């Protein structure tokens, strides 16, 4: 055997050892890398507080000046105030996730949203996750969010719709380094 083929065999063996070790400890790695229920819940609380602050500082004075808040279409549920609040709520989550991979709450807690296949987030993924998934979860009184606590990747129903996962940022570089090493 030539020296190059010895190096190739050694590299193949090293990769094999790394892959066996990773596979052996995959559940431990998943519990470390994926953001769990409580940190995601706290992130959501931070986002709701940020939206409430925006509503109090910007929308409330605007509604007070224009007297348009209580105007409605057909039924009081479809008031201008409710429609604008809903638009801001969904736009906040969709746009922040699409452009920054995280909302303010996720940024503060060091979390980011990624596609499961590790490719860049597409608008379709974000819309299914942040809009359709949130509407369905909200219609079911938030119960689908509890799914996050009971699976290995800590995915919620909205993550399944968008084919996304929420990862802890401090482990993203470790994952990227590992992928480079195994190539």
From TrEMBL:
Keywords for this protein: Cell membrane, Membrane, Transmembrane, Transmembrane helix
Domain of life where this protein originates: Bacteria
Record's keyword annotation contains Nucleotide-binding: no
Record flagged with keyword Ribosomal protein: no
Membrane topology (UniProt): Multi-pass membrane protein
Principal location class: membrane
Membrane-traversing stretches: 41-65, 77-100, 131-150
Subcellular location: Cell membrane
Residue ranges occupied by any RDD domain in the UniProt entry: 35-162
InterPro entries: Pra-immunoreactive, RDD
Designated name of the protein: RDD family protein
Lineage of the species this protein comes from: Bacteria, Bacillati, Bacillota, Bacilli, Bacillales
